Amino acid sequence: MKWVVLTYFIFLFSSATSRDLSRFAQEAEYKNEIAHHFNNLKEEHFKAVTIITFAQYLQKCSYESISELVKNVVDLAQSCVANKDALACTKSLRPEPDAVCKELKENRQSFLGHYVYGVARRLPFLFAPTILALGDDYELAVETCCAITDIGVCLEGKIAALKEKATEMSLWHEHSCGIWKMFGEKTFQAQKLALLSQRFPKAPFEEVYRVANNLKGVYKECCDGNMMDCMHNKAQVVEYVCSKQNVFSSKIKKCCEKVAIDKGQCVVEAGRDEKPEDLPLIAGKYVQDPDVCNHFAAGHNKFLAEFIYEYSRRHQEFSTEMLLRIAKGYEEVLEKCCKNENPSECYGKVEEKLQSHIQETEATVKTNCDLLKNGGEFEFQKAVLIRYTKKMPQVSTETLLEITKKMAAVGVKCCQKSEDSRLPCVERYLSIVIQDMCKKQEATLINDQVAHCCNESYANRRPCFTKLGVDENYVLPPFNPDMFNFDETLCTAPPQIWQENHLGMLINLIKHKPKMTDEELQTIFTGFSGMVDKCCKAADHDTCFGEEVSLLFS
Predict the structure, then answer these.
(1) Closest listed residue to residue 525, CA positions, set 548, 507, 500, 506
(2) Rounded distance, CA 194 to CA 458, Å?
(3) Which of 180, 363, 457, 498 shows a CA-CA span of 20 to 30 A to 190?
(4) According to the UniProt entry, where is the signal peptide (predicted)?
(5) At the topology level of CATH, where does 96-185+196-270 sit?
(6) Global pTM?
(7) Residues in CB range of 171: below 8 A, 6 or more apart
(8) pLDDT (tens digit, 9 = 90+) per residue, 223-264?
(9) If we measure between CA atoms, which residue out of 311, 318, 319 comes closest to residue 285?
(10) What tens digit of pLDDT does each residue of 495-536 get?
(11) In angstroms, rounded to a whole number, what is the distance separating the alpha carbons of residues 461 and 181?
(12) How crowded is the C-beta side of 189, counted as CA atoms within 13 Å?
């Protein structure tokens, strides 16, 4: 019984299925995983984490029942610490590569069932059609690797790539459902229309608009958790696109030859078709036409949808968020100018306004990518941390570190891309980070200016946060000298811990002095590095730190 409980516990504790082979290296280092976790966490925290794990996954069990399970796990952990070579302690949850190949061959249905179960459990926001498509990708990966000599290395690489892909898609599905929930179907459909117009620039407006409209039904069911209808509706949309593949894209022919389950994901990953070479300037219909206001008044929503379609298919290098901002800017100009006596003269300058926003966005991306390139990831995160601590000093140190680390990761991922892919990448992934931040804001108010940026407009979230300054309504906390209490551990700390201490000090400093200039902050950074260097060479580290901290923050 104890081995059964242990197996279940480690499954949950490590967030891995028994078929996950992507951590062979770690398993080699920690052959006895439960003993490693017990020694690392110590008994009190090990018990607490075990309780949390069981409580989250066995929600209908009473506290008494879970306590008994926890006792069994702790008893086994203690026995494994005492005898690390015991069979029950060293039995691997991850089979040898040859065993993986054998299991796929002998019991394919069970093999894939375990994989689908594991993905669905780890990524609850991932839609059913995508999970099934990932199952097929997993089967192909195993079949490919089992046909070569070095099966383990092959599996490790392919499964790591699949896990990254699944996680990314889960984030995007959760993000899309968040757009629907917070901003409604109009914003959701506009975002999908811009995306599809970039992907299928040769398809006529009516066809692209129809698919975008049908996707509303797909996402409604998927986001509500109705996975059977989600599967059915998505399959219908994909079949429609494939029935007119010559109309939509030259890149989806092979996708449409696949089995039903794999078609949808293949079409999503097929990439963008080349835009037509003979597209006329968009200004002809939307700026220079003297009847623009009549068209706008006759069919407001359809006219703007056509504008999004035309602008998006011409600018595949733009993010969907910026395309929606452009459409919103155009709409605002028409709403104002069409009330004037001479509307065409008024809206004739709309291109200048839109171009100004485009240049501002591109300059912001370039500035940040240059900062990352010249200073490296740590310095880039530090710069972002300074900005965001000033914007929302009410947020905890842990959350600020988490958010800015994700933002720095977006820079690392996107700044290396070509110029025609960089902006879509940056705004796509920043939208996901901001959405997560806004969910925290929804649960616990951060401040009014953050709430405004989160709630006013989906497309304008990123520029809104970029333009935020110091929160003028922030009430300074009482000074606590313990926040700047450093000791000799700084002298032996590995680089990652040293960086975390550095950033933590920075957050506490800004929370107490949010209007510090960059020059003043740089003086502190230089002084901090000098203090660490001096005190780590001193005979009495702690005394030195105590004296130098007083001078540094005086």
Answers:
(1) 506
(2) 14
(3) 363
(4) 1-18
(5) Serum Albumin; Chain A, Domain 1 (1.10.246)
(6) 0.80
(7) 125, 432
(8) 998 888 998 999 999 999 999 999 999 999 999 999 888 899
(9) 311
(10) 888 888 889 889 988 998 899 998 988 888 888 888 888 999
(11) 16
(12) 18
